[in-house]
Records
---
Amino acid sequence: MIQISKRCEWVTKEDLYIEYHDKEWGVPVYDDRKLFEMLCLEGAQAGLSWWTILQKRENYKLAFDNFEAEIIVNYTEEKLEELMENKGIVRNRRKIESVVTNAKAFLEIQKQYGSFSNYIWKFVDNKPIINSWKSIKELPASNELSDKMSKQLKKDGFKFIGSTICYSFMQAVGMVNDHITDCFCYKKLT
């Protein structure tokens, strides 16, 4: 008999969701390009479900040049119009434009701090915060730290970066471990 590991309650039976939960969500990320990708995807999620964005993730990578900020900052109006016609992504003009705006801010941060990773991980003193939630109902949508991060990112030129988006980003890139305590990933990441 095969024993199925206990997972966080939000995970559906969809293979894509299971793989994301088991291999990515909550795992600390220090790679700048990957951090930028997740920041952009979390911004695209605003007002939508993560499942919607997760299903479109590969399309986003293709549409946005694998989230290479150096390429994105040079997008022309023609490229933005092309993105608005792309059915594989969320076709919201403000969200699409925010990726370009964020790429510019991201590159500026890299210049100032040596890397985006150095900048963003300072919000959690360079180590993941390990929470001890017993149920998904306990997880916050935002907190004082995500409020602080959101304010600073906005000050530094980022868009679509509210407190809830920042908290989701911190969860996704492992700045906080919000796996419930009886999830097999919680133990793996502590």
---
Amino acid sequence: MEKIRCGWVTKDQIYIDYHDNEWGKPVYDDKKLFEFLILESFQAGLSWLTILKKRENFRKAFDDFEVNKVANFSEDKIEKLVKDEGIIRHRGKINAAIHNAKLFIDIQQEFGSFSTFIWSYVNHHPIINEWNSIKDIPATSQLSDQIAKDLKKRGFKFLGSTTIYAHMQATGMIDDHIKDCHCRSL
């Protein structure tokens, strides 16, 4: 019998693997949280499948998402990234990723970790929603609005409410698996 999955999952194996093994599972590791911030910011205006297919290229291009390295990318490195066909070559998003890396480090220094900071918005426990269908799942929430607003005040770029909501889903701060999905938290 075939497993029931959320309606956004296509038959593409990379999507199935991502859904079954990552999406909605709590992430507390700063490196992984930074990776998802980068990937989600590059996803804006594109499909998540496009990003997943380029994920390994992003990993190489962004030095395995080592935040301290990304924060110190030089102009030469930026020019290499703009020419790298393996990633999304959007200069504004590339510059934002570097800028956001510096602010990510500031948050780590202020709170001890980015994880402590971001998970404090949900009292360090995932929000488990009760959706019957993918149609019920919102693109934003009051909480994603608040986090996006707070990050914007800190100077973050390319991280609006929709991007933050997707980040919360990806990192398990929110479990938006539909009720019938085999991955849903109980």
